[in-house]
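Lay summary. Proteins are chains of building blocks that fold into shapes, and those shapes determine what they do. In this project we predict the shape from the chain. Here is one chain we studied, written as its sequence of building blocks.
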Amino acid sequence: MTSSSIWLTLAERYLASRNLDWESTARFCFNERCNPDDDNLGVQIVKDLHRTGCSLFSGDQAEQNQALLKRVLLAYARWNKSVGYCQGFNLLAAFVLEVVEWCDQDALKMMIYLVEGVLPEGYFANNLRGLSVDMAVFRELLRMRHNNLAMHLDRLQAGESKAGLNYEPPLTNVFTMQWFLTLFTTCLPRSLVVRVWDLILLEGNEVLLRTAITIWEGLAE
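And here is the predicted shape, written in a compact code that computers can read:
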């Protein structure tokens, strides 16, 4: 089985567990006249589309692919009004679209499953509470597994503070926030991202922590 078929099987099982009528859901989410907030959301999404750093969203097919990406992002925002559209969703949805071969309904299924069925609650909403927890857990995990590296980063940050730069967030956050929000789509080759997502969808968000530790181990060397 391909990653695409495995992902969709998992997503559809999740949706079935919620007793969703998918045909009705799809009609609502892809109805471009159903939400008065669409105009504001559309403006916000368009601002991010040019930041989708993928060759598939440039060149001859750029306009068509960006329109499809916008369609999926708006559909998810209509589906989950409490989350809506968050920065970084463009990268997640772009990667999903590529894997599911540009099927907008399959991409929406995957976004629902990923955001609501796999990642912790509040990962993209409620002031990124879920993300903040993962970053805090990661810092402790790094200290347990690689204390010398953690102490080295602490010394670097202490040096910055003494220089009067008023740098407050832990240095690991500079990297891990983007890694976690985009599920590594911005920092790893596509083939590796597919494998990481395979594990995330099968085993859960703890794979994010394991992957980040592995990357830091490579950086430490």
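What the prediction tells us: The chain has a mean pLDDT of 88.
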